[in-house]
């Protein structure tokens, strides 16, 4: 879906962040200094105190595949470079590159935060900031996500909406689900396919695939057909 996931890198004070996070996943520290790391000559001067009591954006955005690809298994993002500041006791700092690998648990929800202790900006005589990765849904052409449920919008020609039809609804893991329509379908009608959504990241139970119907009305109709349609309401 373009609702896969977007990860944003941020730094934070660990104790305060944990109290504010609704879904907090502490992780070991799988970062390492980049092979091409070179401390930059410092022309900067700043206070070595934390930049923000809670978070500071590092301006690095990482797009990953939709979480629907991790319905059955967990995943790990490819290594991604980010930058952090290293402050001296005098207040100057240089910027260094580091590489981070982010584990993604299957079914992880948007807004989940994965914390890497002491991987953020560094200060003299003080514990380094934590690095926090916040997961966001990335939009998808076919599906939208609501927690563990997935919505699929199905466009029907008006003839199928009135007369019925057999549909093959695409599933998020591939394949289709056959759905037979026998009644009249109105715009906004929904049908639920149980157990074809996203797994709950705690229980593992999958949500549902919700099909929402929209009707394609013709731009014009033959005058004779108008008379037939008027008889429907008689």
From TrEMBL:
InterPro entries: DnaJ_C, DnaJ_subfamily_B, HSP40/DnaJ_pept-bd. Keywords: Chaperone. Transmembrane segments: none annotated. It comes from the Eukaryota. One of its GO terms (molecular function) is protein-folding chaperone binding. PANTHER family: DNAJ HOMOLOG SUBFAMILY B MEMBER 5, DNAJ HOMOLOG SUBFAMILY C MEMBER. This is DnaJ homolog dnj-20. It comes from Ascaris lumbricoides.
């Amino acid at each position: 879906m373009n609702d896969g996931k977007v990860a944003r890198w941020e730094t934070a004070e660990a104790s305060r962040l944990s109290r504010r996070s609704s879904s907090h996943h502490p992780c070991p520290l799988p970062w390492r200094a980049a092979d091409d790391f070179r401390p930059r000559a410092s022309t900067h001067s700043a206070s070595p105190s934390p930049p923000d009591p809670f978070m500071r954006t590092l301006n690095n955005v990482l797009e990953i595949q939709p979480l629907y690809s991790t319905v059955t298994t967990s995943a790990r993002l490819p290594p991604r470079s980010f930058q952090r500041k290293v402050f001296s006791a005098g207040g100057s700092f240089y910027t260094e590159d580091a590489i981070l690998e982010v584990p993604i648990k299957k079914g992880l929800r948007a807004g989940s935060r994965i914390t890497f202790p002491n991987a953020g900006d560094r200060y003299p005589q003080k514990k380094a900031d934590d690095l926090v990765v916040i997961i966001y849904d990335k939009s998808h052409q076919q599906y939208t996500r609501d927690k563990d449920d997935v919505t699929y919008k199905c466009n029907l020609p008006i003839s199928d909406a009135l007369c019925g039809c057999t549909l093959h609804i695409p599933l998020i893991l591939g394949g289709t689900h056959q759905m037979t329509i026998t009644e009249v379908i109105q715009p906004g009608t929904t049908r639920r396919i149980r157990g074809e959504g996203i797994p709950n990241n705690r229980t593992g139970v999958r949500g549902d695939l919700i099909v929402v119907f929209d009707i394609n009305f013709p731009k014009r109709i033959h005058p004779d057909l108008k008379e037939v349609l008027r008889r429907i309401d008689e």
